Amino acid sequence: MRTELKAVAYTPPEEEPLEVIFETAKKINTLIEFVSHQIVGRREIIRQSFYALLTEEHQLLFSRTGTAKSLQARQIFNCFDRVTIFEKQLTKDTMPDNLFGAYDLIQLKERGKLVHNVDGSIVLADFAFLDEVFDASDMLLRSLLSLLNERRFTNGENQIISPLNTVIATANYVRATEVLEAVLDRFLYKSYIPENKNLYLQVLIDHVFQANQGQVVDPKEKIKLSELCALKEVVKSQRIEIPDYIIFLKNYIVRRYMEEVRASDPEQPNYLVSDRTSVKIQNLLRAAALLDLRTTVEEKDLDQMYYLLCILGKKEEKERLDTIVDTARKYFRDDREVLEDVLSMTRLVWEMKRSKEEDNMKPARIVSALENMREKPGFSLRQKLSQAISRKVIPLSYKSEADKAVSLLRQYCAALKNMAAKKETIELICGLEEDVETFWS
C-alpha cells in the first residue's frame, strides 16, 4: 500500500499582519540590491531569481562557462537563514542516486525494492543549484519532472512531499528532445547571460573580486525560511487583488505576443505560451505588487511580465513585449468601462456555475448584483446601459429568480455589445453569451 510522507516544512499562520508582510518585502528589496552589488551587471536576472523564489518556481540560466553562475546561485541562496541547499554538476553519467540519495541496500536485498535514502538529497532540500543541467541523460531529466513540478518524489511504495522551493539551473546549450521540452516548461523563469566586456563593468567586477576574492558574502540581515513562506502565502492567496480588467489585459498581451513571435520568427512557427504558464503570470503580478508594498495589482505591474514571458538578456524579446504591453493599455482605453462590466458579469456566471455544482446556487444575489450594475452612479456608461435595458420588453414576472438572472444577462450582453468599440471586447461578450446559453440549455 502506498503512503505519503511529508518532509518537515514551515506552516505559516493563516494570516500574517500586512505590516509584518511589508517589512519582510522591504528586506527582499534590500537583498536584491545587496546581491546586485556582489554580482555586477545582473540586476534584472537577480530580480528574476527573487520572483522565482516568491512564486515557488524555478530559474534557468543560459551562458558560456566562466560567468560566475554558481557564485550567483550561492549568493542568492545565502540570503536565507538556516536553509538546506543541494548542489550538483550534472553529466551524462549522473545517476538517479546522485540526486535522490543512495539506494537502500537492505531494502534491495530483502524486498527487491529500489528505495533511496533521501537524507542529504535534492528531495529534502529547500533550494538547489544544478549546473549544466542538460548534460544529464533524458532518463535522469525525466525522473526530475514530478519533483520540479509537483514537489513529489516516488520512493519505492511511498510518495514523499518535498520542501523544494526553487531550483536554479544552468546550461550552455539546449538539446531538442521531447523530455527536454517538458523540463524547460518547468523552468518558468529563463535568462541568457551574454558576453559583456564593457570596460566600466569590468572595473566594477575587479573591485568586487578584490573585496570578496570570489567568495559568497553574508548580508547584514538574512531572511528566515518562515518569512519567505509567509510572503509566498500572500502571493498565492487572494490578499493581493488582481482586478479582472488587468487579467483580461494580461491574456490579450499573451495572445498578441504568441502571434508576433510566430509571425516574425521562422524558427518558432508553433511558439506557445502554455495555459499553465499564462495563469502563473498572476503570481508574478502579485509578487511585483508585494515588492512595491501594495495589496492590489495595477496596470504598471504588466511591465513585469517580461521577467516570465521573455528570456532575459535577449533585447529583441523584451522590446517586442514592451510594445505590445504599451499598445494594449491604449487600445482598450475606450472600452474599459464596457470591459469591466462584461468581466464582472463573467465572474457572476462563473460563481453561478460553481454554486450550481455545489447545490448552493443563490440566483437572487446574482440578480441584485446585475441590477446594481446599471444603478451604480459615477459612470456615463451606467446611464447608457440603463437606457438600453429600459427599452427592452421586460416580463412582469419570471418563473424563478434564475430565469430573471439569465434574462438580465442576455439583455446586458446585447446592450454592451452595441457599446463595444473593439473586436476583442465583442469576442469576450460573445463568449459570455454562449456560456450563458450553454449553462441554461
List the helices and strands and how they pair.
Elements: E1 3-6, H1 18-38, H2 43-54, E2 59-62, H3 69-77, E3 80-81, E4 85-89, H4 96-100, H5 105-111, E5 127-131, H6 138-150, E6 152-155, E7 158-161, E8 166-171, H7 178-186, E9 189-192, H8 199-212, E10 223-224, H9 225-236, H10 244-264, H11 275-291, H12 306-309, E11 311-312, H13 315-331, H14 336-357, H15 363-375, H16 380-390, H17 401-419, H18 423-440
Parallel strand pairs: 1-7, 2-8, 2-9, 3-10, 4-5, 5-8, 9-11
Antiparallel strand pairs: 6-7
Textual characterization of the structure:
The chain is of the alpha/beta class. It has three domains: 3-236, P-loop containing nucleotide triphosphate hydrolases (Rossmann fold, 3-Layer(aba) Sandwich); 244-331, no CATH class; 336-440, no CATH class. 55% of the residues lie in helices and 10% in strands. The chain is built from 18 helices and eleven strands. It has helices at 18-38, 43-54, 69-77, 96-100, 105-111, 138-150, 178-186, 199-212, 225-236, 244-264, 275-291, 306-309, 315-331, 336-357, 363-375, 380-390, 401-419, 423-440, and strands at 3-6, 59-62, 80-81, 85-89, 127-131, 152-155, 158-161, 166-171, 189-192, 223-224, 311-312. A six-stranded parallel sheet has the order 4-5-8-2-9-11. A three-stranded mixed sheet has the order 1-7-6. α1 (18-38) packs antiparallel against α2 and α14 runs parallel beside α18 (423-440). The longest helix has 22 residues, at 336-357. It is globular, with a radius of gyration of 26 Å. The relative contact order is 0.11.
